[in-house]
Write a structure and sequence with these properties.
Chains A, B: It comes from Kitasatospora paracochleata. 2 copies of one chain form a homodimer. Chain A has 11 helices and 10 strands. With about 280 residues, chain A is α/β, with parallel strands linked by helices. An 8-stranded parallel barrel of chain A has the order 1-2-3-4-5-6-7-10, surrounded by 6 helices. In chain A, strands 8-9 form a two-stranded antiparallel ribbon. In chain A, strand 5, helix 6 and strand 6 form a beta-alpha-beta unit. The two termini of chain A are about 25 Å apart.
């Protein structure tokens, strides 16, 4: 079975965008819509089993743009650090088995009760140093994702593309890269210069829009491309000018979209991709 | 009538923290609590009248740390720009009459329907250039407040201290400064270096804490110093090392705190100030 003829040649469905679909449903949805790639989530993969999931996407002819996600590297105690390392090594192995070259990392927030942001950031660097060689051996890149500063306390102490690059550049380019996710970085006054600086470090370009008001759960406020305040044409030009030619992954956390039939969501994704990101 | 003996010698009550108090009530609250300064809001001042408000705080012996707020400078059309200029000139005059040397500016978000962040930022610079000489003549500084990036679309296209300094440094130091507000800047990986750079540009140091979860209205999520994730001791040391010796203003937007009796709020402010910001 091979993929349908595809029009949006660089578009990838990040699986969280169709959260209510199982992995087999998401794979079929991509085939039906002509979307050539998928970004997988570890929890969904686990439901199917890693080997079976790998077989499923391979036989469908889909590329795996990323695996989401590793990270959470800020534990201060030896047990916490050891557990984080073990978990990330498993995630790297899964990424290799699934056939993707990119493991997205959400680095983790402040440990409970801590206000030591500088220390938390140092621990991220330390654990990256332990993981990077293993990633290189497997041919999988650790892709540091700066998260919007509103998630600094609880999810990611890496908040800007510049900061992610400061970390990534300590390692060989094939071992550690960065994610440019429109939602997290669009506001940054240094965005243009940091995307240019990123160059070959860009391991993934993820898109969704900044919409207002923020919902009660700030995690779930992302909108379809075109529904909010982000200038995708300009950002895509900048990412392209930096040399990135890889997948453009739509990753949306939004209850309303999650409750929309998946096929409708994919149709909207393709329309918006052509209207705002890449002309057909 | 003179102020009571004061222990927290640099503490100022930003009036929004006791939103349900009128100006006369807030002035009396500061006197009762021994707080020597107040940051005024234009809407509260207008209820009393500018001349009467000026007389009230002067006779109470209170310093006026700031006037909040001017700004909203991103309108793209001539009428909108003209109206913004006129409004800010009025605010500068009020600041001078009230006896403060600092007008806090929230620069404004993206105009309706616009995704042109670069253009909006340019318009802020253009209107600052028109306002700055008038501010200098009155002895009032325009204090650019970078707002947290989650307010970039709708309230302030200036999101970092570095960006605020890039703007401020185009003008004489006595005309344009910056606000360091802990809530807005605490996450910034460049915070230490940008505070050091700011030096004499620091026109105001405002404090409140980053608490989670964010409430339904993200504007209202601020907590008392000590209730959240911010390391105030370190930030205060950095601001002090940069040469700032002015007021430390507590500015909290929070429905629960607004519904607390003002005297209780001021007591908590003083306790937290001594515990986390400045030893008594």
């Amino acid at each position: 079975m091979s993929a349908q003829p595809v029009s949006p040649s660089r578009l990838s469905l990040n699986q969280i965008t169709t959260k209510n679909w199982s992995l087999p449903e998401a794979v079929q949805g991509c085939l039906d819509a002509g979307i050539p790639a998928i970004g997988l989530w570890r929890d969904k993969v686990a439901e199917t089993g890693v080997a079976e999931a790998a077989k499923l996407v391979r036989e469908a002819g889909l590329a795996v743009s990323t695996l989401c996600r590793g990270g959470f590297l800020t534990a201060p105690d030896p047990d916490g650090r050891h557990a984080a390392l073990a978990e990330n090594l498993r995630a790297l192995d899964e990424a290799a088995e699934l056939g993707t070259d990119t493991l997205v990392l959400v680095v983790g927030g402040l440990p409970d009760g801590s206000r030591d942001l500088v220390g938390a950031r140092e621990r991220v660097a330390e654990l990256l140093a332990e993981l990077a060689p293993h990633a290189g051996d497997l041919g999988v890149r650790l892709a540091i994702e700066p998260l919007h500063p509103m998630f600094c306390a609880d999810r990611a102490v890496v908040s800007t593309l510049g900061q992610a690059l400061d970390l990534a550049e300590r390692f060989p380019v094939e071992q550690v890269g960065v994610v440019v996710d429109s939602y997290h970085v669009w506001w940054d006054p240094e965005l243009a210069s940091q995307i240019a600086r990123a160059g070959a470090r860009i391991a993934s370009y993820q898109v969704c829009d900044w919409t207002l008001p923020l919902p009660a759960d700030a995690l779930l406020g992302r909108g379809h491309v075109g529904d909010g305040h982000i200038d995708f044409r300009t950002m895509t030009e900048q990412v392209t000018a930096a040399g990135y030619t890889g997948w453009i992954e739509v990753e949306i956390f939004n209850d309303t979209i999650w409750n929309t039939p998946g096929a409708d969501t994919l149709r909207t994704m393709i329309e918006r991709h052509h209207a705002h990101v890449e002309a057909p």
